[in-house]
Design brief:
The complex is a heterodimer. By secondary structure, chain A is mainly α. Chain A is built from 17 helices and six strands. By secondary structure, chain B is mainly α. Classes of the chains: A mainly alpha, B mainly alpha.
Chain lengths: 526, 377
């Protein structure tokens, strides 16, 4: 168990870095694929070439983004096994299934048809090509569905039971697993957040062309489409975000505590902390600015329900830890005497709190001899890091409403055909390009850091989940990823900028291709 | 026979099919990547070769991704133990594979000679290295890997990373690379013309013969190698926990299955027959036949591996009794059943649209055509 904490921290850092990096590209794929499908639909219906050129241009940027999404997705598929072996064994019976179905149902669809989408323009009829584009969009969004079903199991484990013989959780209801309420809300919230990302991407780049008076044909139409698509997407994102917050309030009360910096139980009517400076050690906010009365209806969708704070949840956790200790003791007995009926009965009686005893094991390797102080420490661990979750949540929400305002303005002026006369709006749209990415990152932090100290909420603590690597291995792999991924992002961004600058094909005679023909004359002798 | 035992065997067979799909489809593209600098001498020729697989490499790569997902779903203990135990090997595999999508997508986006030359080397690395690692991983499964579990199934790997690249494992890695070069050669023959096609034919011939030679050396090696035998406590219908059986290490044990069922010798025999016929077919220009015989050679190779090691999947060299076998490393009955259902529905659909995609993009790819197509890689 040497350097266990360091190895777990490094594994977490590596997972966060590779997941967030992957998450730069995925939302754009989710949204841009449907925008491409929408543009191509207009082309197929109107037969106007401008929409074909539009689709081709955004499709080129889509492909540059897509390649890195695919590349970094490979890491994600294997990282549970390479770095979270104990986790993978513990939940593999459940968690692996949606991942495999994602491959069967979504990845194959998306990846097979993306080839036809990019290379099949001349070989497919207009309608068939349009169908292919829709299948790419469908495939990428289906993959989001399955990965979020898997993720939701970590947030709100349902449809499973712990099996003391195989030392892992096992599937008891497949339908409950896939109809996890957390999964439904989270899938839609995340997917439409991807649509928002795609919309801002198209909106911002179109604004850039309009500011420079270039490619106006494509830019104006793209701007209008992105604005319309975006306004619906952001409204859905905010609505589903609220629904997700409501679900979290009941299934992950500790996450809610962190999101709202709620140290003490909030009796109704409770005020909403607009901003605060949470101090985890002292278990209080050094500073807070409250909007009175708002929190209770916001969270509970009622006027009279109290919202448990960190103090109450910690008390509950202490009870659960004490309840869980016999389960862990019985499990230990069962591992060497599988037929011990008394141990099995004792396990059955306490199994629902097994995870809390595992949390205690960190401080008291022999949980039977745990002191009240050790139990207190483990209970305190159940409150996630409040400061980053609280602020990420506010950054995400602020970004969401800012984008809502931008999309509304963009739609209003687009309808009146006045966008070109509003350079401030165009500038605003251009400088909003990073905003959805920031919101996506912040949302990830709220969801995953707010889940701590668990990998599977209430069942498997993070400290126990990582592979048993040495610190040296972890430093090596983390440095390798940082180095490789840094090189990739520089390459990707420079290609993206180059092709944005180059702009779409404006129609007319075939474009002069000397710019992309080979400059060196003797290349044939390489 | 008990349903759970049947499900375990079914998923063991499905894993074999998946690895075959991986070898054929991913191997073919990697074989092309690894030999790109040989198949295409000029930039135009290289672009022609790349564009033969351009619409398909991404779909093909899903065989690899699905492989990971299916092992996770059906063999979670193997997913956890193998991928964490073979950590550095997995990193080498991942890091080399990550470069590949970028190589295809970005290479021809800029005209610079240094840029394209650099990506050509990247495509070489991301073709050759993963295939060697893939084979080396299989080799390690024959030799056994030093790992053990604690009472609550936390796994520890106790070897050094360099021991995973031992001579036998490298040899297996070269078999896999040679088969990939053969398959890539067949594909480029199918879709290339003139000098490119001729080079591909030569590549197919040399790689095929090399594969046979290396495969033979592997076979001789395995003959004397220490294999693993279950001596008690294994229950095919029992719960999946690898802690309650006993295993002995016996020299030459990997031949026991062949001795018990001589019909299994058809599997290694198929490798020789398929490759030799495949080379002959290529000589007479029927490269489509060579391609399909390449599929047979993958089935033969992986089938030989499976026949030798069954029911072992990942033997432990440091604690043989905790080796992972078909009987004790799988998911629960319920998960295996559900996943079988999903596979039965989706695999035929996947095969259908994959074939359609290949059919749509059929035909010869030449440097001239690529030059005229502004959307080619």
């Amino acid at each position: 168990m040497h350097h266990l904490a360091t190895v777990v921290d490094l594994s977490r850092a590596q997972f966060a870095a590779t997941a967030l990096y992957h998450y730069l590209f995925v939302p754009l794929t989710l949204g841009l694929s449907f925008l491409l499908a929408a543009m191509e639909t207009v082309y197929v219906i109107t037969r106007r070439d401008i929409y074909r050129r539009m689709t081709r241009f955004w499709g080129k940027l889509f492909a540059i983004n897509f390649a890195l999404g695919v590349a970094t997705g490979l890491t994600m598929e294997f990282q549970f096994g390479t770095n979270w072996a104990t986790y993978s064994h513990f939940v593999g019976d459940i968690f692996g299934a949606p991942l495999a179905i994602e491959g069967l149902m979504a990845f194959f669809l998306e990846s097979t048809f993306v080839g036809l989408m990019l290379f099949g323009w001349e070989r497919l009829s207009r309608t068939k090509h349009l169908l292919v584009t829709y299948l790419v969009a469908l495939g990428s969004n289906l993959s989001a569905l399955w990965i979020l079903i898997a993720n939701s199991y970590m947030q709100h484990p349902v449809g499973s039971h712990f099996d003391p013989t195989t030392m892992r959780v096992q599937l008891s209801s497949f339908t409950r697993l896939i109809f996890n309420p957390d999964a439904q809300a989270k899938f839609v919230h995340t997917s439409v957040a991807g649509f928002v990302t795609g919309s801002i991407f198209v909106l911002g780049i179109s604004a850039y062309y309009m500011l420079r008076g270039r490619h106006l044909e494509v830019a104006k139409r793209s701007f209008r489409m992105a604005a319309l698509f975006g306004v619906f997407a952001i409204l859905a994102t905010i609505t589903l975000g609220d629904a997700l917050g409501f679900i979290d309030g009941s299934v992950q009360p500790t996450k809610l505590v962190a999101m709202e910096a709620l140290w003490k139980t909030a009796e109704p009517p409770a005020g909403f902390n607009l901003i605060a400076w949470p101090d985890q050690k002292a278990q209080r906010n050094d500073f807070e600015l409250k909007i009175p009365y708002v929190l209770t209806p916001l969270i509970t969708h009622s006027l009279h329900k109290p919202i448990p704070g960190a103090d109450a949840l910690e008390r509950q956790a202490r009870t659960k830890i004490r309840e869980g200790i016999p389960a862990l003791e019985a499990l230990h007995t069962l591992s060497s005497h599988p037929d011990d009926a008394a141990a099995r009965a004792r396990f059955k009686a306490h199994e629902k709190d097994l995870g809390y005893a595992l949390l205690l094991e960190r401080y008291a390797p022999d949980v039977s001899k745990a002191s009240p102080a050790q139990i207190g420490k483990a209970a305190r661990d159940t409150i996630p890091p409040v400061f980053p979750v609280f602020w990420s949540f506010r950054i995400m929400v602020a970004a969401g409403f800012a984008m809502l305002a931008l999309f509304i303005l963009a739609v209003l002026y687009s309808i009146r055909n006045q966008v070109s006369d509003r350079p401030w709006l165009l500038r605003l749209a251009f400088w909003s390009l990073p905003v959805p990415f920031i919101a996506n990152f912040a949302g990830w932090v709220v969801a995953e850091m707010g889940r701590q100290p668990w990998t599977v909420y209430g069942q498997l603590p993070t400290w126990l989940s990582a592979s048993t690597h040495s610190v040296g291995y972890m430093v090596f792999s983390l440095s390798g990823f940082v180095l490789l991924y840094s090189i990739f992002i520089v390459i990707e961004m420079s290609l993206m900028v180059k092709f944005v600058r180059q702009g779409p094909d404006d129609g007319g005679p075939p474009p002069d291709r000397s710019g992309i023909a080979l400059r060196e004359p003797r290349l044939s002798e390489v | 026979m008990d349903l759970y035992a049947i499900l375990k065997i079914t998923w063991w067979a499905l894993l074999g099919i998946l690895l075959t799909g991986l070898g054929v489809m991913v191997g073919m593209d990697m074989g092309v990547g690894a030999s790109l600098r040989y198949l295409g001498r000029s930039d135009g020729e290289r672009r022609a070769v790349i564009n033969m697989i351009a619409p398909h490499w991404d779909g093909n790569q899903v065989w690899f991704i699905l492989g990971g997902g299916a092992v996770f779903a059906a063999w979670p203990t193997i997913y956890a133990t193998a991928f964490s135990g073979l950590y550095i090997v997995m990193l080498v595999l991942l890091w080399s594979m990550i470069v590949r999508p970028l190589g295809f997508e970005y290479r021809s986006k800029l005209p610079s000679r240094r840029w394209r030359g650099g990506w050509d080397w990247m495509l070489f690395v991301s073709g050759a290295v993963p295939m060697v690692v893939f084979g080396a991983a299989m080799g390690n499964m024959l030799e056994g890997v030093p790992f053990h579990f604690t009472w609550n199934m936390v796994s520890y790997y106790t070897g050094s990373f360099i021991s995973l690249f031992n001579p036998f494992a490298i040899l297996c890695g070269l078999v896999s690379l040679a088969l990939a070069l053969y398959q890539g050669g067949a594909m480029v023959m199918n879709r290339g013309e003139g000098v490119i096609r001729e080079r591909a034919r030569r590549q197919l011939t040399v790689a095929g013969l090399a594969a046979l030679g290396l495969f033979t050396v592997c076979g001789v090696w395995v003959w004397r190698m220490a294999g693993y035998v279950i001596t008690g406590g294994a229950d095919p219908a029992g719960p999946a926990i690898p802690l309650h059986k006993t295993v002995a290490v016996v020299s030459g044990a990997w031949l026991h299955n062949f001795q018990a069922r001589p019909v299994l010798w058809l599997l290694p025999a198929a490798v020789y027959v398929a490759v030799l016929l495949g080379i002959a077919a290529a000589r007479s220009g029927r490269s489509h036949v060579s391609w399909w015989l390449g599929v047979v050679s993958w089935i033969g190779t992986l089938g030989t591996l499976g026949a030798a090691t069954f029911p072992f999947m990942m033997p432990s060299s440091s604690n043989p009794s905790q080796s992972l076998t078909v009987w004790d490393a799988s998911s629960s009955r319920s998960t295996l059943l559900w996943m079988l259902g999903w596979s039965v529905v989706f695999v035929p659909i996947i095969l259908t649209y994959t074939s359609w995609a290949f059919w749509v993009m059929r035909g010869k790819v030449t440097p001239e055509k690529v030059e005229q197509d502004e959307h080619a890689y």
